[in-house]
Amino acid sequence: MQISDAEAVVMDVLWKRSPLSAEDVVASLSSRQDWQEATVKTLLNRLLKKGAIDAEKDGRRYLYAPVLQREAWVQGESESLLDRVFGGRVAPLVAHFSEQRKLSRKDIAELRKLLDGIDDGRR
């Protein structure tokens, strides 16, 4: 499922805490986004149409909750990035970051640990 960057901001609020009303989402975003309530409601409606969230009537308002799980979205976004930019390969991605941004000793240690774990699982 493709969701825009703006929709992902709204989803992040709902992944952290739900169900929420549109007003609750607006309040949660007020410190990091300068969006009007109408903008947030538009984004919620788009997410509803895509099936990423669900709405349940609660008196005169609706409460929104995610259907799309964050882990599934992250996996899709990661695979899309790898396919589009790095031909589906992880090694060029790591090489790019090591060339463009110096990896800290902690980053390198974590990568080694991950690789050792993968290696151990294949034996």
Describe the protein in words.
The protein is mainly α. It has two domains: 5-66, Winged helix-like DNA-binding domain superfamily/Winged helix DNA-binding domain (Arc Repressor Mutant, subunit A, Orthogonal Bundle), CATH 1.10.10; 89-123. It is 64% helix and 11% strand. The chain is built from six helices and three strands. The protein has helices at residues 5-16, 22-29, 37-50, 70-86, 90-100, 105-121, and strands at 20-21, 53-58, 61-66. A three-stranded antiparallel beta sheet has the order 1-3-2. A hairpin with a 2-residue loop joins β2 (53-58) and β3. α1 (5-16) crosses α3. It starts with a helix and ends with a helix. The mean pLDDT is 92.
Sequence of strands across the biggest β-sheet: 1-3-2
Quaternary structure of the protein: single chain
CATH superfamily membership of the largest domain, which one?
A: Winged helix-like DNA-binding domain superfamily/Winged helix DNA-binding domain
Annotation field: number of helices: 6
Produce the secondary structure layout:
Blueprint (H helix, E strand, L loop, with lengths): L4 H12 L3 E2 H8 L7 H14 L2 E6 L2 E6 L3 H17 L3 H11 L4 H17 L2
Antiparallel strand pairs: 1-3, 2-3
Feature tags:
123 residues, mainly alpha, Arc Repressor Mutant, subunit A, 2 domains, three-stranded antiparallel β-sheet, 3 strands, 64% helix
